[in-house]
Amino acid sequence: MNRLKIASIAAVWAAGSLAFGEGDMNTLAGKALENRKEDKIYIWMEVEDGVDTSRNALEIIDDPEASGGKYVKEPDGYVRVSFEVTEPGAYRLYGRFFSIDFDNDSFALRFVDSAGQELANDAWNNINVESHLKWDWDVLKLGVESTDEIAEFELQPGTYSFEITPRDANEIKMDRFVLTTDWNFDGAKQAEGFAYIDIELETGEVLPPFSVFESDTASQGRYAAMQSSNAIYRVEVKEAGEYRIWGYVHGANHHSDSIFLHINDMPIMKAWAFAEDEAWGIWKWSAFSVDGSDVFPFHEGENVISLIQRETDSSIDAILVTNDLDFVPVPLR
Fold this sequence. Notes:
Layout: E1 3-6, E2 12-13, E3 17-20, H1 27-32, E4 42-46, E5 59-62, E6 70-73, E7 79-85, E8 89-98, E9 107-113, E10 118-124, E11 135-139, E12 153-155, E13 158-166, E14 173-180, E15 196-200, E16 205-206, E17 210-214, E18 222-226, E19 230-237, E20 241-250, E21 258-263, E22 270-273, E23 283-287, E24 296-298, E25 301-308, E26 315-322
Parallel strand pairs: 1-3, 2-19, 3-4
Antiparallel strand pairs: 4-26, 5-6, 6-26, 7-13, 7-16, 8-11, 8-12, 8-14, 9-10, 9-13, 14-15, 14-18, 17-18, 19-25, 20-23, 20-24, 20-26, 21-22, 21-25
């Protein structure tokens, strides 16, 4: 029969055993694993146990229905800035950014008028895709892959606002926006006969995980950027092999349903999308996958799993690592 074993996350896991965080047997974990097999390994981790709250913006939320009574939520901070449009016309939005790579070149953008009507609520993605690692200008294309035509907005005089929320690990620096009727704007000069609205992002309301930083290379000596948070889990396994990683997750909407995950010596972190089936607003088990594969090699000894902040208001309760590739955890609620 299966042996139930109380141990720390870094304990050695024996085949057919269960291990939990220090303390009493977690009854919700027992429920999730009620169909376990005797000859397989099941490694249960309470996500909140890997969060260093003194260094992280990741939030630990008390919830009596959660496994262990707590879950982890990505912070719902933002950069929000308001501005006035004085001349009617067809506008395009340009931004000056410093992006690092393909995993750090996007954010979610919400554009609203004074009545609160949404003009856009989507990803600004693949920013400066051909000019990473330097400051450069990019024009807004809406959509996950940003393959659509350049976004155009018919605007009347009035008050408008932008709200930026995280989407990538977001070591992306955001200097300024220019909303203009000049569709040939290159960031260098302004032409006669066009409207230009210069918006310094760091002058708006900036809430964690976003902060304002000083730099001689920014247009006014300052820029806004997100400081990513992470949680780290060190897991010892006695049996090398192929493992699946399950997470008990909650995605609020299509801009709040993912986190980055990194395993051992994986070349780069990968996005863990919780609700590819658009099942938002519910808690469910989700298997981490990369390029269509949802099994990963674990070696004997210590293995390291890292969660890195991605999209705001995404939540994760527990992680289960198992070499039982036929196993599907039972929902906790």
